[in-house]
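## Example record

The block below lists the input lines for one assembly entry, exactly as stored, with component labels intact.
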Amino acid sequence: MIPRPRSSDFKNIAHYTGKVVFGIGLLMIIPLGIALIFQEWNPALDFLIGMFSCFAAGLFLQIFFYTERDLNWLQGLVVASFSWILATMFGAIPHYLSGHFGCYVDACFDLMSGYTTTGLYLLQDLDHISYALNTWRHILSYAGGQGIIVIALTFLVKGTGGAFKMYVAEGREEKLLPNIIQTARVIWLISLSYLAVGSMVLWGIAVHEGMSVTRGLLHGIWVFMGSWSTGGFAPQSFNISYYHSFPLELVTIILFVLGSFNFALHWAVWTGNKKEIYRNIEIISFCITITIILTITSVGLMRLGVYPNLMALFRKGFYHVISGHTTTGFMTIQGRTFVKQWGEMAMLGITLAMAIGASACSTAGGFKGLRIGLIFKTLTHDIKKILTPETAVVIEKFHHIKDTVLSEKHVRGAMLIVILFITSYTITTIVGVYCGYPFIEALFDGVSAGSNTGLSCGVTSPSMPMAMKLVYIVTMWLGRLEFMSVFAFIGFIIATVRGE
Amino acid sequence: MRKHLKLYSLKMKILNSALIAVAFILIFAGPAPASIISSQELVENDHFYDGKTVTFQGEAIGDVMVRGDYAWIHLNDDPYAESPSKLAGYNSGMAVWCKADNAAYINFVGNYKNKGDIVEITGVFNKSCAKHSGDMDIHASYIKIIKPGYPIEHKFQTNKLWWAVILGFAAAVFFAVNKFWRLK
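Predicted structure tokens for the full assembly:
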């Protein structure tokens, strides 16, 4: 027997979801300002409509479902997943009104892709969109990278136990400081500090490479947001290849590697614990897997003689390995080049990189390095147990901010999430193959969506079947929230319908 | 006399024909006319076209990025180059490396406010350019502006303004109610 949710459950969920929706409206002030500065009057109206819709809906939910009760675990999980749905639907209003989308679902696809820092998009005629809309796309990635719940916690929610439950439900666990609101603010402090420095550097490079000062500044900010958030949205359809700039590519690599690191690691280094960089299990795991994948991809590319020299191999091969592994999705080649030139071995290398992903509690997606590290540690632990006498007690430790003894709980948690990710990748691939795409291409884009990466070999497009678009939206959502809060949300709906 | 006249007129005809031919060559100086190849054709058959001279046409978009004596331009040959208002999928085009002097003829680059010049180029296609670290590009030796660009007029959408006013009013009412509620 499933207990039916009480009215207080609905009240709590609606009230806190209202706060998140209101926060999305606040974010729209930035693109609205850009629209006014550059005299883009119709986009300004689009953002006014979007912003007022968010304010009206957010305040409506907060007033009519007013509560002062704190959230319990189930409510926190449901708030996180439900907020992402409403934030997608309301955030898509300016997108849809821009006239660059075939239908509202396409606009929602781009919103979910932005929030989840995926970077796949269905927007049409990107090269003619307004500065305001381009700003909004990149803000989605930047905000989504920190987490839209983190935004709400930073500005709109009081520091309570419920706040921590919402925070955890968004796929994060680390508390950088004892208070969760302070933790959210530290995440923003880290991100905004990098934004200031990174944007200026990219601006300088863009101007040096022949762009005007104004466009260089905008592109500098946009590309930073796409890099740091491991988002992958780019301002032009040529993506990063548009700039034809080695310095810019180098800086973006540094930024998305930094963005893919755990915020707890950033905070540890910021507060003077520099040893953490080379002791942390995620960094070690990341270095090992990147070496293996780089070898696979390079062998694949060199076997076919795709690139004429080592520099080309670095700027194309290495760039995409890092871009895939950090789940960024920036590209320095055209999507179809993966299929036409790279061959299946190199594509499998990149697919593997995307599937593994980067660090937990970062802006990145995928299995996460921590889980890969834990699974590997478990394997070595079991081998040690076989090799030692039965009476011996074998203890395996791992270092992640602090030394921790590997336990059954860690392993089960890691394995469960990895299995769920593999299931998600399998489903997206099967759907792609069913819709008529070749296996390797369906796998590539399917894993890209599931791991929130954004690299595409040409499968993702406005003309792809509606079923695939919907599956990708759900997959991106599941991958970003790491399943549990979405399952809680589905369970909550089932309990509402069938509970007693 | 007649013979002389006939000979004279024949010479004149030959001279005229020669002059017309020279004039024709001078007017249409440049590469031999070739069929325009699409970016899709180049991407899908990159091995075939690699190192070959191709003629490509598209709308100049984004920026003209000057690098010393040369410049990067990007030409889109998607349907938006013809009719900017209709949705027709993603953008598609080619990166072009050309002399900065030639790129200077481009007055309009495509963006939200402008329809870019339609530019025709002839040059060598590289599927993985050795000079540009593996970029797929065309090194143009000849550039021609086919159709000049122009500023795009975005008609102010009054219906959106009304929606903004209505929703703004609703948000203000809820805001006032929320404020009053809290004070209570």
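Chain B touches chain A through 54 residues (CB under 8 Å). Residues 21-33 of chain B have pLDDT under 50 and may be disordered.
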